[in-house]
Amino acid sequence: MYLKDRFLKDNEASLSYLDLSVQRGYAIFDFFRLVGNQPLHLQDHLDRFYSSAEQMRLPIPKSRGELKQIIKELIWENELPDSGIRVQLTGGENNDGQEFISPTLIISQIQFPFPSSSLLENGMRLMSYQYQRQLPQVKTTDYLMSIWLQPILKDGNADDILYFSGGIITESPRSNFFIVTAEGKLITPGANVLKGITRKNLIQMASTEHAVEERDVRMEEVAAAREAFITSTTKQIIPVVQLDGKMIGDGKPGSVTKKLMKQLGERTGLH
Amino acid sequence: MYLKDRFLKDNEASLSYLDLSVQRGYAIFDFFRLVGNQPLHLQDHLDRFYSSAEQMRLPIPKSRGELKQIIKELIWENELPDSGIRVQLTGGENNDGQEFISPTLIISQIQFPFPSSSLLENGMRLMSYQYQRQLPQVKTTDYLMSIWLQPILKDGNADDILYFSGGIITESPRSNFFIVTAEGKLITPGANVLKGITRKNLIQMASTEHAVEERDVRMEEVAAAREAFITSTTKQIIPVVQLDGKMIGDGKPGSVTKKLMKQLGERTGLH
User: Is pTM beyond 0.90 here?
Assistant: First the structure.
């Protein structure tokens, strides 16, 4: 891994307890996957990383070229194909909250669990929860609510949360949400969400065959939807078959969803 | 300072980049002051720390007696009278978000800036901002919004933020808010706020001479108030003389506020 200005072993990589991520939860990150040893959608993820940093007023201490070079060296050294790379930037130490003099850059390569074949084949159950992520367009490290909700999720026999606010659906803690209408139209929340890279690529891909709308999605529209699914970097596409214990469509992964899963897998090389 | 199970020098105290505070912003803390070398309201702060930890499902790896002993040793070793002690607990490493197996305990002693005599004498200017802290009753390390708002504060010629939601005032990022009505009644928001220890002690103290209400406070009530002030552990009481550029009362620290500042100072031994 890489921390501040050095390549380190994972167990050597530590940061001061005074780091603003530890003290005040002020940090951003991004995460992309490797297909073999090749980063997937690296440009998109770096674009978003730079955008998150700018919105948080955090200067990235490396140029894009330097970041790419560090990532390349990490991949070369670690020999961990089909894993993921997490690029993080924190508020660092010694700052007054006005100006960030020494942000901490952390780049690590991680093996993460793939979605189970059961989830892929049978779909997942979501549970709605009223909440709006703060600074939703920034990929911050603020996952307080999603971790805090874990027991509620378990009690509710659900696999993940679906946030909503004022009757409008936004997103899952780590995924974007789509419905497929009876007419085969794809609709995904357009505001107050983190715009996922998989979301972006899926919209682009699906637009050749489907009308796609990015706009407010009301709770009632999910009940009336024929299909639903989520998208994320780690999960790619997972069918959603239940919301709050009620079936979506016929309660099975839909044909449009299955088609998109297949097409996206062929496009990315992930499977 | 004290980290995990050891006393360390401040510059030796580091934690893994995998700690859940760094990765996912999952951590709580509390902070109390020393009068000389004597902790102020230690029981209240430890009560709140244990309550925050319980609400976040974080097991505190030490008993209350052990915590107090560590704090005592730190104070003895550091010889930093009139400073503050920060007690923090993070989600730690190696957990699935369901159960926290190894939370990280961090206890540090810090010198912090006292409020300037200008603020104490002339009062502060607040700027309202629509926002509701997540899990408001828990003292988490989530100060994302308050740090993010720093430039807006500067542009607005204000000293601090006052959060509100749905027309109801809640709190400042690090302080509780009070108004004094024309009849000399004290009113402070009762819901969706972190209940400060200074707030608690002030209410107790003021109740002998004033009616005190803990309830929803509407924005309009601030405009009509005779005086306003904030309370916090570091600041104790600071008069508030402006909200969003409009004077509160006659725009000067009020007589009730000044009386309470004096009484609280005598009570705590802080000055």
Answer: yes
